[in-house]
Predict the structure.
Amino acid sequence: MKLEIKNIGQAGTLESSDAQVIVAPGVSEGIHIELQSPVIQQFGEQMQEVVRDALNKMNITNVSVKIQDQGALDCTLRARTLAAVLRAAGKQEELDWELIDKWSV
């Protein structure tokens, strides 16, 4: 499944222990992450690495990501990123679960 960010995709909430992830086509080449979190000093780099790793596994190289974290775990950030990308690429209906399992690890 080839993914291309065509639109804005969003996943997650602003509830405690969750994160809202919004992805959009990048305006310049590369992965650009804007992160807001109450724990950015302690975990900001790790959180960005989790999102970059998820995007790299999906071969997404040109994207803008906005994250509003409310204390989400790494697995939640990864899942929210995957869901937002699938929505932005318009691929919610044609899911390849074996491929998604690879991306989720």
The chain has a mean pLDDT of 90. The chain has three helices and four strands.
